């Protein structure tokens, strides 16, 4: 059983989005901006399904190092300020300015995980993900790689 514990432990420790590009801890604004994009991807379907919710929760726990009991608070906060309360361009501006290119690619990878969670990628979902990748400053190759990496 310990063979499975090592990869699980490695994945749970990732925390690639827990700090901004300067090394400072990712504050609530940065975490909420990331969460808003994931929620927008999930709510874009006619229904928000449990698989999408699970992809969001797992991603937030792993990438921010948040505990199980902290995630509902972050989701609630992000849900309160999703568009139209804030503009999507304001959200992507925050991510572009405060995350490194690698971290922005990680956000897009998480976005693709949410989109792919229900097993169907609608045309508008792909357009949305490509738009977000461009808006956060990823070049087409990095955006394509993020989509490929999301399938792993």
Write the layout of secondary structure elements.
Layout: H1 2-12, H2 28-43, H3 50-64, H4 71-81, H5 88-98, H6 101-116, H7 123-135, H8 140-150
Helix pairs in contact: 2-3, 2-4, 2-5, 2-6, 3-6, 6-7, 6-8
Task: Kindly summarize this structure in a few lines.
The protein has 152 residues and is mostly helical. It has helices spanning 2-12, 28-43, 50-64, 71-81, 88-98, 101-116, 123-135, 140-150. The two termini are 22 Å apart.
Question: How is this structure best described in words?
Answer:
The chain is mainly alpha-helical. 68% of the residues lie in helices and 0% in strands. It has 8 helices and no strands. The radius of gyration is 15 Å and the shape is globular. Mean pLDDT is 90; it is low at 8-12.
**Number of extended strands:** 0
The ordered H/E elements are: HHHHHHHH
- Percent of residues in helices: 55-70%
Number of helices: 8
Nearest-integer average pLDDT: 90
Poorly predicted runs are: 8-12
Structural class: mainly alpha
| Span of the ends, CA to CA | 22 Å
Main sheet, how many strands, which sense, barrel? none
Strand content: under 5%
Shape, principal axes of CA atoms: globular
For the CA atoms, what is the radius of gyration? 15 Å
């Amino acid at each position: 059983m310990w063979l499975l514990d090592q990869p699980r432990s490695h994945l749970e420790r990732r925390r690639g989005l827990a700090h901004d590009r300067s090394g400072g801890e990712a504050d609530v604004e940065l975490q909420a901006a990331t969460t808003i994009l994931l929620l927008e991807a999930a709510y874009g379907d006619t229904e928000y399904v449990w698989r999408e919710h699970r992809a969001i929760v797992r991603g937030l726990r792993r990438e921010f190092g948040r505990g199980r009991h902290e995630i509902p608070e972050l989701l609630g906060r992000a849900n309160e300020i999703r568009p139209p309360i804030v503009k999507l361009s304001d959200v992507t501006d925050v991510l572009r300015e405060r995350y490194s290119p690698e971290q922005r690619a990680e956000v897009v990878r998480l976005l693709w995980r949410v989109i792919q969670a229900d097993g169907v990628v609608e045309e508008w979902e792909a357009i949305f993900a490509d738009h977000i990748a461009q808006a956060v400053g990823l070049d087409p190759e990095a955006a394509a790689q993020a989509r490929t990496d999301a399938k792993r």
